[in-house]
Amino acid sequence: LFRSDQQVTPLEIAIPDNLHENQIKAIDIANKNAFSIITGGPGTGKTYTVAQLVMALQQATEGRGAAQEKIKFSTDSASLALAAPTGKAAQRMQESLQAALDAANVELQLQEAKTIHRLLGIGRTGRPRYDANNPLGEDIIIVDEASMLGVELANYLVSAVKSGARLILLGDANQLAAVDAGAVLADLCRIPRLEPIHAELTESRRFTSDSGIGKLAYQINKAKTDTHTIWQLLKHDKVLSFQYVNNINPLQTEASLHNEIENSLSKNKNISNLTSNYHTYINKIKTLLINPIEKSVPESVKDTIASLMETFNQFRVLTAGHNGEWGDHYINKYFTQWHLAELKLPLGQNTWFHGRPVMVLQNNYELGLFNGDIGFCLQTGNERSRLEVFFENKKQGIAVNLLNEEVIATAYAMTIHKSQGSEFDHVAITFDNSHARLLSKELIYTAVTRAKKQVTIYSTKSALEKAVQTPTERHTGLALQF
Hints:
Layout (H helix, E strand, L loop, with lengths): L20 H12 L2 E6 L5 H17 L17 E5 L2 H17 L10 E2 H5 L19 E4 L7 H9 L6 E6 L12 H6 L8 E4 L10 H10 L5 H10 L3 E5 L9 H14 L1 H8 L2 H12 L7 H15 L2 E5 L8 H15 L14 E4 L13 E6 L7 E5 L6 E2 L8 E3 L2 E3 H4 L4 E7 L10 H8 L2 E9 L1 H8 L14
Parallel strand pairs: 1-5, 1-6, 2-3, 2-4, 4-5, 7-16, 8-14, 8-15, 15-16
Antiparallel strand pairs: 9-10, 9-13, 10-11, 11-12
Helix pairs in contact: 1-2, 2-3, 7-8, 7-15
């Protein structure tokens, strides 16, 4: 894809006047090159820019006449592919792009966005169906959340793009890299030879120049982090705050560590403060206990779940890891006890209960569920045993016995990795010294930029300072190829 023989024919496109200079540059680069990269922080208009690109290309191809037309955008054609590393990111990408097209009154029904694995036909063997010998048929492939791309998957993707097609990577190069090997997007953005095909969007519509969240993200991102400035921001900015937590020694037996964490959480004011942020959600859940969801009316189901999701997304606890006092496992366990007590439900061993927010941990194509999807377990009748899980944009619930508990997690708290691509009004970020090996600038930056209105950090002084001064050191070897 990076060889000189990989050429595309630029189309004569009309670029709207209302775009910023860097957005115009991004569209121009994507039109003229087989491979292009569009990066930017949250709210910089990556999706909006791509929507403008798609519209410009569509109009250009329509103007060429049917005989010459190379790129089609109808659902009957497979010429425009939308993809992302996770199912949730793919779904969000399609929704955002479709909303931008609808807002512009463009009658264009996009094809379903897919995970990259699904696009390439990677099954249980781990090998792709599409490769250099059997390339994808699409003329344009747009990949969102490209910071999550690992080396192996990126290699498979690039190999499967046919000659003359365009591959466009979107993402925030400062975000967390993939769980797999390598930080592909960040490395590509540092290669001088690729500068001509890279457009960076810098003007954020979400965070103004005087936004506390924007300032904090900027300080964390700096090559040489100024911890003094970060502490001043956390101390004085009204949308930012820092809460000190006790540090439990992780080097003890599992049983004693478990007991110490249980006792600490139950006595800890910080954890009880966290629960107060979910009171609005709990009140809605209480109402649905008295007046159960009308599952026989699909539109009512859709509206109820959309309203519940909007309330639930007002706040989220994001953790550095699973384990320890401030990991998502223990926090979710505490929240579950609080939830059951609030609803006066029995504190039994049953994992399913009315109002339980859940996250899907593994794609399930039969049920139409994707890794990262959030749903709500709700009572559907007068009997407490009649429970179904309802997901956004689905008009009916799924009986709990159809869901594999091993790939479902309670979602009051989630890891920062799992939060990529999501947005919440208020984010509480939790970590302590026991998470030391997981901490990095990119991790904290990703967590901070999930918030739209407020950020609270629950940590120790040393853990925060270590995190913001530790860049991720992962070498892909990509620079050696240019």
